[in-house]
Amino acid sequence: MRHGVGIAAAAAALALALTGAAAGAARAAPPPDLSGLWSNGSLTTLERPKDLKALVLTEAEAAAYEAKRRGKPPEIEDDVGGADSEWWELDHGLGRVRGQARTSWIVSPADGKLPFNAAAKAVNTARMAGRKGPTNNPEERGRTDRCLPGTAAGPPMLNGVYNNNYTFVQTREALVIHAEYFSDLRIVRLEPGAKHPPPAVRRWLGDSIGRWEGATLVIETTNFTPLEVDAPPGGDPAADMVVTERLTRLGPTQLHYAFTVRNPARFVMPWQGEMVMQTAAGPMFEYACHEGNYSMTSMLAAARQAEAAAKAAGATAKAAGAASEGTPGPSAR
């Protein structure tokens, strides 16, 4: 009897040990591989359109919305025929998250709009009013004119009307994110104990550090350049913006992507968004921003020409006025 109890106890101990070993093996399993070619192309964009109020549409509402827009170029302010001559990705419908047709990637605030503070709103209004100027120096033009958008590789990673592909390459030490749009490249460091550099060190696209929480890769990015933080006049040009991203594989063809942006220089509150990225057939294409290479020179040269013409017209008008009053004009002196 005692032998039977001893054998049972030994068996129980062995089973417990095997269970513990199995649990340890499960804990030591490698993280999911996020490598692949992904796309976030969609009719859904970061902010909700003015004509839509709810975050989620019924399938009937989504079908009606998509039928009016699928296959048509976006409505843009365009003076040079770009809406007709550009190549657009027109075959997308609305993005779906957990099976729901979404009207914006932003889920908080509830209105689907960026929560700009008063200073940022004033700056945005002034920029819209002055989109055709000033043209004294390249630095005065917008980031897109200068081929410095930084909106594709992020963070956060956002979609547009074309070039919505991403290549992810994952190793034990890093996740490399290569965005097709503007060919931005971001490296997320995955080494344990990684730390951000001192606040005085600023990097384009920020400094990204990732850590695994189960099957989710959590990425924290900060140390952005002042141009990316986009602080209003009078604000701290080196104010810290912090972006937290969460990437989770949903299966072979889908990747859930959630993000939170904290930037007190521009927003009254942190804002959050989420989307589902899909695998893409590819290939990735080279994106070359020739607008900044050629058009910048043309814009500045045209501005100088317009100034010279205005100056000449002013001189002519002054001379004509002087002649009509019977006084010698500048050319007669």
Mean model confidence by pLDDT: 84
Beta-strand residue fraction? 15-25%
Class per helix and strand makeup: alpha+beta
Q: Helical element count?
A: 6
> Distance N terminus to C terminus?
131 Å
Question: What is the strand arrangement across the widest sheet?
Answer: 1-6-7-8-9-10-11-12-13
Oligomer: single chain
Weakly predicted, low-confidence segments: 1-5, 7-14, 329-333
Element-level helix/strand string: HEEHHEEEHEEEEEHEEEH
Percent helix among the residues?
25-40%
**What is the global morphology?**
globular
Largest sheet: 9 strands, mixed, barrel
Return Rg in Å: 28 Å
Number of strands: 13
Your description of this structure?
Helices cover 28% and strands 21% of the residues. Strands 1-6-7-8-9-10-11-12-13 form a nine-stranded mixed beta barrel. A three-stranded antiparallel β-sheet has the order 2-4-3. It is of the alpha+beta class and 333 residues long. The termini are far apart. The longest helix has 35 residues, at 290-324.
Summarize this entry quickly:
The protein has helices spanning 2-27, 59-69, 82-85, 118-129, 226-229, 290-324, and strands at residues 36-39, 56-57, 96-97, 100-102, 106-108, 165-170, 174-179, 185-189, 207-213, 216-222, 242-249, 254-262, 271-279. With 333 residues, the chain is of the alpha+beta class.
